[in-house]
Known about the structure:
Shape: globular
Structural class: alpha+beta
Amino acid sequence: MSESTTPASPVVLEAWFDLQCPDCFKALDDVRALRAAYGDRLDVQLRHFPLPKHKHAYAAAQAAEEAFAQGRGWPYTEALLARTAELADRGEPVLIEVAAELGLDAEEFDTALIDGRHLLTVDADEAEGKAIKVTGTPTYVIGGERLDGGQSQESLRERVTEIADRLLGA
């Protein structure tokens, strides 16, 4: 038997975010840096954990899922997180505006928010987050370890890097 030339599976980094959370916006710098450092060896997956104190976070999570369905999930997530204060003030119209600004089908976003097609995904993420004891955002899970960025983002990137290097055998 010959050795396989396919690269090893990427390490999965689950980023548990509330899309109305200013700390999650700050955490994007870490996400970008990790993506730059690891490329496709690190699969950053957005997981939803809308906090009750953010009244538009649940709709924002559904909108992000629609953006993923339209092929622009992370650009939408980043653009929306840059406008957390505006989302807090103006609510759901901001979700549609961001979609339109990115050239996404804004009418489809509106329909998705009305018909609730992404509710199950958001609810499942929220339930799983509670099960693994996510209490704040951002929280990361990598290699089975939960890193609570909701408490302190300081040295979070270094801790993720340590775990990723270990898992990748770097």
